[in-house]
Amino acid sequence: MSSLVSIRGLRKSYQRGAERLEVLHGIDLEIPEGDFVALMGPSGSGKSTLLNLIGGLDTPSGGEIEIAGRRIDTLSAGQLSTWRSDNVGFVFQFYNLMPTLNAQKNVELPLLLTRLNAAQRARNASIALQLVGLADRAKHKPNELSGGQQQRVAIARAIVSDPTLLICDEPTGDLDRQSAEEILGLLQTLNREHGKTIVMVTHDPKAADHARRTVHLDKGVLVDEPAFAH
C-alpha cells in the first residue's frame, strides 16, 4: 500500500512577542492510502497543529509534507487554497453549518467553487446526504436537526467533492455517546467501504478505537507508549 501522506522532519513554531514557541519538533510520519489514523495526546501536544499542516490550513516552519506525490509545503497561499478545495474534506467539532440554509444547500457549498452546474451540484449533494443516512432530512435547516444529524450534514459536506483525504478535528467532541458512536461508525464505513483516508484528532480513547491505528504526540514529538494513555 503506497503512502498518501509522507511527512519528514516537520517543524512548526510561532512567534509570541519576543519568545519563539516551538510546537512540533521534527515529526516523521507515513500515512498509507486508505488508512484511518487517530492522533492523540495531552492538550498542547501539537495534535491540531499537525492536523492543520496535513490539511493545508497552515504552513510548516521546516520539513516536508508530501500528499499524493505533491509537496504542499512549497505551495503559495493561492495554490494551497486550490489544493485544499480539490483534495481535502474537513470535519470539525462544531459543525459550522449555515443556519439559513437547509441540509442540501449546506452540503452544496463546496461545489460552488467548482464548474458544476446547479443540477449537478444538487445531484452530488443528494448522493452525499444519502451516504450519511440523511436523504430524508435534505430540506431541514440546522436548527431542525439533532447534534448528531448536524455532524452528518457536515460530513456529507466534507465528502461531496470526493476528496482524497478527510481531516477530522474532535468530530465527536460535542456529541453524546450514542451520537458519537454513530458518527464514528459512519467514518469507519467511509474508510472501509469507500476507501477514504482519514486523519482524526481526538482526546477520547473510545473514539480512537474506531481508527485502524493511533499515533501519540507529546510535547511536539511522536511517542510510542505515552504516559497519558490508559
From TrEMBL:
Molecular-function annotations in GO: ATP binding
Annotated ranges, domain ABC transporter: 5-229
Gene3D superfamilies: P-loop containing nucleotide triphosphate hydrolases
Stretches that traverse the bilayer: none
Keyword annotations: ATP-binding, Nucleotide-binding, Transport
Listed PANTHER family: ABC TRANSPORTER ATP-BINDING PROTEIN, IMPORT ATP-BINDING PROTEIN
Protein name in UniProt: ABC transporter ATP-binding protein
Organism: Cognatilysobacter xinjiangensis
